[in-house]
Specification:
Largest sheet: 9 strands, antiparallel
CATH class of the largest domain: Mainly Alpha
CATH topology of the largest domain: Transferase(Phosphotransferase), domain 1
Strand content: 15-25%
Shape: elongated
Structural class: alpha+beta
Radius of gyration: 35 Å
Number of strands: 24
Helix content: 10-25%
Distance between the termini: 62 Å
Number of helices: 10
Number of domains: 2
């Protein structure tokens, strides 16, 4: 049964469906906003499978400083194409940057653009750049959308090189899941190019132009799910190889050699992750390619998302820590002071060693030497007498059975026992804003899996983001009140500032730090393992392993997490 995209409502039907390969073959570079590195979507010529409507009306003559609805002040035109223009603007009411698409009200695609924008706004999925307003006013139609000043286009990211496997996995995982949700609501993108994908400073990928970018250009498709799936495959292919998977160059990327067709990513670039390369081929098989495995082709975003979820987990790269400079001894510390230094050996000496002072030869000097010697002899004699007296006294007391003897070793207090591992009923993420879906990995019994935070930049305290002002961590629910005597936590990486807290025995489902009033450990930088045994057990049902600061990954970013949690104690 043929699918129908809502991306371009009221646009004439197409006679056929040419996959994205035909679109990309003649794609031209997109316009770039040099102010923040986000590119506005550039021209994409029509093909047999995507037909633009009649000749567009002339774009309205607008200029910087023009104000829409007495609110949106146009600042910079980033695209002017095919009868419409795109601008960076300022929302003076909320004092924030926004993006604006503008076209005349009598433009042949004005109605479909308004319909697509309103449908996209109703989705409300944070993985997409949100449509904020869609208005027809004063012979103009304009669509206002979010502007992300801290985000980077995938075009710019790939210009620096291919992505490492974990980052490429995150790209295809997030994009395929987002497009699965969109298609469930009847929305297609139809223009999923590298310029439509933005990576935020926290490492999340967001999609802009859902339905709207295609409507602006009059692009439709009889099989929108297939078109979007192939586009995701092209994005993954480019992320792995830094090459566009078609013959023509596009989006700043070099195309494949002419006449050879679509070849596997590991034949383009050495060291490509095999599983991800096969996944890209399964998505691109819509263009007639043969997947490099026996698995069937993925023809919908949902099938692709399931294939990604079925892959073995790809761990993020270990943080690169800079080794401290090697300690170098001085010649004096090496025991070679005054000896000749062999050739090729470097010595370190902070300042020249002064020669010893000349001996005292005068009468006063000789008297001083004899005085010092007499004092030393007296001190040694006094010390020897006191030592002998103490030894004799101790022997006498021992013979008389004095009670001043030291206590025997078997009378020393015993170290507290940590207890047995308690069953954990449920775990969740503090605040539920940092990878809540991965919380169960901290209690799955596999030290190789972990709850890992996104990569934050500039600030160790979770990027100083408003929603993460209290840090994050894992809340442990034991199911009922237990006697907790210890905790053993494998941290994802050393150097995290962490503490362990417990809620009061009568607490019911605490979700904030203030709900955990009993301090088990103090905040401190941890090693790879956080382990403690209490002198006296505490009664609680809920514990919090709280992380307030993340360690540097050596590249200007910060990331941490927890691999495995064990709570020790007894049920009664």
């Amino acid at each position: 049964m043929a699918e129908r995209s809502t991306a371009a409502v009221d646009v004439a039907d197409n006679s056929g469906d040419e996959p994205l390969a035909a679109q990309a073959a003649q794609a031209t570079a997109d316009g770039v906003d040099t102010q923040n590195g986000q590119a506005a979507d550039g021209p994409m010529p029509e093909t047999d499978g995507e037909r633009s409507s009649a000749a567009p009306a002339a774009a309205p003559e607008l200029h910087s400083g023009h104000k829409l609805a007495r609110r949106y002040r146009l600042e910079e035109c980033v695209t002017r194409l095919d009868g419409f223009s795109s601008w960076r603007a300022m929302d003076e009411k909320l004092r924030r940057a926004v993006g604006v698409h503008l076209l005349p009200a009598d433009h042949p695609r004005a109605r479909s653009v308004l319909a697509a924008a309103r449908s996209s706004a109703l989705l409300g999925d944070p993985r997409f750049v949100q449509v904020l307003d869609a208005v027809e006013e004063n012979d103009l139609v304009y669509v206002v959308h979010e502007w992300l000043p801290d985000a980077t286009e995938l075009t710019a990211v790939l210009a620096a090189g291919p992505l490492e496997p974990h980052e490429a996995y995150q790209l295809v995982h997030q994009i395929s899941q987002a497009m699965t949700a969109a298609h469930r609501e009847g929305l297609a993108h139809l223009r999923l190019t590298p310029s439509a994908i933005l990576r935020t400073s926290t490492g999340q990928y967001r999609i802009r132009g859902l339905a709207v970018n295609a409507a602006l250009r009059g692009i439709t498709s009889e099989t929108p799910q297939r078109a979007d799936t192939e586009a995701i495959g092209a994005l993954l292919y480019a992320a792995l190889t830094q090459r566009w998977p078609y013959e023509n160059d596009a989006y700043g990327l070099t195309g494949l050699p002419k006449g050879v067709g679509l070849i596997a990513p590991d034949q383009v670039r050495a060291g490509v992750h095999r599983g991800l390369g096969e996944l890209a081929m399964r998505a691109l098989a819509n263009d007639g390619a043969t997947a490099s495995s026996q698995e069937p082709a993925c023809t919908t975003p949902e099938e692709l998302a399931k294939a990604v979820a079925a892959m073995p987990r790809i761990r993020p790269p270990e943080p690169a820590f800079t080794a401290p400079p090697e300690y170098q001894q001085t010649t004096y510390q090496q025991g070679s002071y005054g000896r000749p230094v062999p050739a090729g050996v470097t010595t370190v000496q902070s300042r020249p060693v002064a020669p010893p002072p000349p001996p005292l030869q005068s009468r006063t000097g000789r008297a001083l030497k004899w005085g010092v010697a007499a004092l030393l002899i007296a001190a040694l004699g006094l010390g020897s007498w006191q030592l002998a007296d103490r030894l004799l006294g101790r022997g006498t007391q021992g013979e008389s059975g004095s009670s001043n003897n030291q206590p025997k070793n078997n009378d020393a207090p015993k170290a507290p026992e940590p207890g047995e591992a308690l069953p954990i009923k449920h775990v969740s993420v503090l605040g539920n804003s940092v990878k809540p879906e991965a919380a169960d990995k901290t209690v799955d019994g596999d030290p190789g899996s972990a709850w890992v935070t996104p990569r934050y930049v500039n600030y160790a305290a979770f990027g100083n983001l408003e929603q993460d002002n209290d840090g994050s961590g894992i809340i442990v629910d034991l199911g009922s009140v237990k006697n907790v005597s210890g905790i053993d936590v494998n941290m994802y990486v050393a150097g995290q500032t962490a503490e362990v807290r417990a809620a009061a025995p009568d607490a019911t489902g605490p979700t904030t730090i203030s709900g955990f009033t009993q301090h088990i450990t103090k905040p401190a930088r941890t090693d790879q393992r956080l382990q403690t045994t209490l002198e006296a057990p505490i009664r609680t049902r809920y514990l919090l392993i709280h992380i307030s600061e993340l360690p540097s990954d050596g590249t200007g970013g910060y990331r941490g997490g927890i691999s495995e949690i064990k709570v020790l104690g007894s049920a009664s």
